[in-house]
Amino acid sequence: MSSLSRRNPGQEFAQPPVSAYILAYGLWLFTFLVGLLVAFAVRDLYQMAMVFTTWDRYAVHLFNQFGVVALVVALTALVVATEAYYRHGVPKRNVFTRFARVLGLLALILATTQTLRLALEVIAGAVNLISVLILIIVLLVYAWTRTVLQRDSVVSTGVQQSATLTWVVRAVMLVGGAVLIVLPIKFPINLYDEGLALVNGMRILNGDVPFRDYWAIYPPGQSYALAALFAVAGETVLVERIYDTLVRIALALVIYVLAARLLRSWQWALAPYTAAAVLLAAATFYGYAVFPALLLGFATLALAFRYVDDSRRRWLIGAGVLTGFTTFFRLDLGFYTAASVAALLILTWLLPPDDSRGWRPRTQRLLLDVVAAATPALLLIVAFYGYLAGMAGFGVMVDNLLIFPATTFRAVRWLPYPALTPDWSIWSGPGGVDVRLERMLGDYLRFYIPLLVYGLSTLLLVGSAVRSLRGGTRFARTDVMAASLVVMGIGMFVQALSRYDEIHVLPASLVVVILITWLVRQIPAGQWDRPLAATPVIVLLIVPVMLYFVGPYVKLSEYVRRHPPTACFSTLPRAGCVMTLPGQEEIVQILGHQSPDHGPIFSGLLRHDNVFINDVSIYFLAGRPIATRYHELHPGVTTTRAVQEEMVAEFATQEPEWLVLLTWGNPNEPNASRFNSGVALLDNYIRENYRKTLTTGAYELWRRQSP
User: Fold this and answer.
1) Does 541 reside within a domain?
2) Are residues 508 and 376 in the same domain?
3) Which of 54, 97, 409, 612 is least surrounded by CB atoms within 10 angstroms?
């Protein structure tokens, strides 16, 4: 609140400063702009409502003209009245209170207008998420104005108002975030990444063992979870997506709980929760094993934060258990989670928040803490990976999980990082302003904002640590929590460097939205009452708000408009109404008609000496056995002579009758995947033994020829 709104009864400015009038007229101009926005919204509602009437067009035109005149008169009255209202409020030191009262009235009018618009959209069966977002923002503005007026009432009367509105807003935001995550559930199937999750789960359900019976480079925790779900609920894409959606909702809620403990405020925690929910909803990589790994990793930190607050070691034991489970889904995320817990314990030992005991008892406690957290984690890791090593072989498992990702994977999947300065030449390219801005600044900001936030957070924490070591203010518990989050965020960012793109930097973005809120929380409350101090902060926050909320929300709105969750987009039983790609449904139906014995098939490419991705999902949609252990055609693996010799031997043994070849070419990314290996053993075998029988969409169906 501005200092102008701090009313001191019986006292007025003898000579109000010029800055007070400048602020008053600045608020007056802002009020005019908001009033203009309300006028446009009312007029837009009227024009939309006319579509639903049976009035004569002359009557519609007449009412339209009267409406325009009425809006102009109302807007003029608003301008004249608020100018005098704010100007007379300067000597009384309540300009900001008066502004909040007027803004609240305008917000209430706009909320009513937007509610009616949404009702018309529901009747028309075309609800727009942007309309929902506008209504939510307007309601939040109204809630803020009520808070300002209630705070002013508390200052003047000493009476505290009810917090019911706060609870209602919190509940609506939490439920709304969960609903957003559910909405894009019918987004078209991802033929490669989602296909891998589906097929790996299907293979385990059919008795295959990871690494031994099929090639993979990630831990099989997600595959075992999906296999269990398929056994209970049936093998459909929708089952996998419901599981994935529930994991994302749980992840957003865990972020909310974790942020509330860090920020010491359930209200402030709504900001990172909302951003996280929108980011997770707009990320359409269903079946992505990173999501359950992140859920377990953030839950681990939440338990560790609880330990910092009450020193009960049982929370560390729980954190160790969750860390072990995290490694079942992703080894790298499990390691970064363990590192963040270790940082938390070390800082608690080095800079105790309120413990005056000496080094020796603190060191003993640290050792006990490490044992409590590490023991269950190590036991789970040894049990799980010991079982896998016993079934598949220790050397094979290590090569798949550690050696290949650190060597060949990086060579064939790495993508370049954004330069230190944006590529301004993109601005002159095709597309609208929003499209060009996203191409020019999207990846750039997603790369450098995390680095900036981690750097600022580290500097702030180092300053607190130095003051603590010099005998000043103690290193706070929340500082310890923030430091562990910085460690986790840096780890998440490092894992994105192996293939930098939007989905891989998402984990780092989730940490960033928490830390940005924590940084804002460090600003003293009194600074927000000074417009000259608060305005630059608000302006700077526009960039992350656009990047981590508005942009993903607009993208999500488009997804839902094209693929509403209530529609059914496929007749394939195993698709579960999820939209398939052009040609997939025809291929599966033809295979079912031509080969009802459900023999093995192979999903490949027109050439296998130069590969990028293949359609893995077709195996799951068809529900067929796979003719090779290499259902995933990975550059640097299936392009080699040794692997192609193995695949040719498998084909000769199993003699699959049908091949489904994807006609997409290699996108020629700036890495080793664009190079031709020169190995054509598999292509030669296919052309000697199979003939093309059908082309549909992006697929060709090839059939084995009789000898």
Assistant:
1) no
2) yes
3) 54
Task: Round the CA-based radius of gyration of the chain to a whole number and report it.
Answer: 30
Q: Do 506 and 586 fall into the same domain?
A: no
Task: Indicate if 339 and 443 belong to the same structural domain.
Answer: yes
Extract long-range pairs of 269-275: CB within 8 Å, 24+ residues apart: 269/517, 270/169, 270/170, 270/173, 270/174, 271/513, 271/517, 272/513, 272/514, 272/516, 272/517, 273/173, 273/174, 273/177, 274/173, 274/177, 274/549, 275/513, 275/548, 275/549
Whether residue 296 sits in one domain with residue 438? yes
Q: Looking at the structure, tell me whether residues 316 and 386 fall in a common domain.
A: yes
pLDDT value at 8 more than 60: no
Dihedral angle of Cα 689, 691, 692, 693, to the nearest 10 degrees: -120
The backbone torsions φ and ψ at residue 144, rounded to the nearest 5 degrees and listed phi first, read -65, -45
Residues 6+ apart with CB under 8 A from 39: 71, 74, 75
Q: Which domain, by its residues, includes 593?
A: 574-704
Antiparallel, parallel or unpaired: β 658-662 and 601-605: parallel
Residues 502 and 631 in one domain: no
Number of domains in the chain: 3
**Between 125 and 442, whose confidence is greater?**
442
pLDDT in tens, 10-27: 444 456 777 778 878 888
Q: Please report whether residue 528 resides in a domain.
A: no
Q: HEC profile for 606-647?
A: CCCCCCCCCCCHHHHHHCCCECCCCCCCCCCCCCCHHHHHHH
Q: Report the length, in residues, of the chain.
A: 707
- Is the pTM here over 0.85, yes or no? yes
Which of 522, 538, 561 marks a domain boundary?
522
Assess if residue 344 is contained within a domain.
yes
Comparing C-alpha atoms, which of 696, 552, 613, 664 is closest to residue 190? 613
Tens digits of residue pLDDT in 90-149: 887 788 888 888 988 999 998 888 888 888 877 776 777 888 888 888 888 887 788 777
- Of 101, 129, 161, the position where a domain reaches its end is 161
Rounded-to-integer distance, Cα 492 and Cα 497, Å:
9
The three-state secondary structure class of 696 is: strand
| Number of other CB atoms surrounding residue 311 within 10 Å | 13
pLDDT-based confidence at 433, cuts 50/70/90? low
135 and 237 housed in the same domain: no
- Residues 6 or more apart from 236 whose CB is under 8 A from it? 573, 574, 575, 576
Which element (helix H / strand E) includes 132?
helix 129-157
In three state form, how does the secondary structure of 202-250 look? HHHHCCCCECCCECCCCCCHHHHHHHHHHHHHCCCHHHHHHHHHHHHHH
> Contact at 8 Å (CB) between 293 and 506?
no
Q: Is residue 540 part of a domain?
A: no
